[in-house]
């Protein structure tokens, strides 16, 4: 992994940013062999190095690096990292929207119940 990082001219900070992991995660992995527990973290690191999903885990398990793959340019890595950030922002916004929907439904139910209470009977929908 360290060799691949150096061959691509990436600092540990660059690799961490591209992989969307904390720099200490990269340092612990490269310097101390402390493997992140989540497969997704390993896949993000591998992806930042231009590898297919599962390659990082396979290498750490002692398997050889798969055959050569077309080199991924730094520009492509930066674009991929930004697109992934956009996807994460969209997922976060979708979660916030779902929470807003639940709040609005609660407001609707309470408003209908209050209207029914005020009128002393049922309220037509």
TrEMBL record:
Domain HTH cro/C1-type: 1-31
Family matches, as Pfam families: HTH_3
CDD domains found in the cross-reference section: HTH_XRE
Top-level taxon in the UniProt lineage: Bacteria
MF annotations from Gene Ontology: DNA binding
InterPro entries recorded: Cro/C1-type_HTH, Lambda_DNA-bd_dom_sf
Identification of the protein by name: HTH cro/C1-type domain-containing protein
């Amino acid at each position: 992994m360290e060799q691949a990082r150096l061959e691509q001219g990436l600092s540990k900070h660059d690799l961490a940013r591209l992989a969307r992991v904390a720099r200490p995660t990269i340092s612990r992995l490269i310097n101390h062999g402390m493997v992140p527990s989540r497969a997704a973290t390993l896949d993000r690191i591998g992806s930042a190095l231009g590898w297919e999903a599962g390659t990082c885990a396979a290498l750490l398990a002692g398997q050889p690096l798969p055959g050569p793959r077309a080199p991924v340019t730094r520009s492509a890595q930066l674009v991929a990292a930004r697109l992934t950030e956009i996807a994460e922002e969209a997922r976060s916004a979708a979660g916030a929207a779902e929470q807003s929907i639940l709040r609005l439904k609660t407001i609707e139910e309470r408003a209908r119940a209050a209207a029914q209470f005020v009128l002393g009977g049922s309220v037509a929908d």
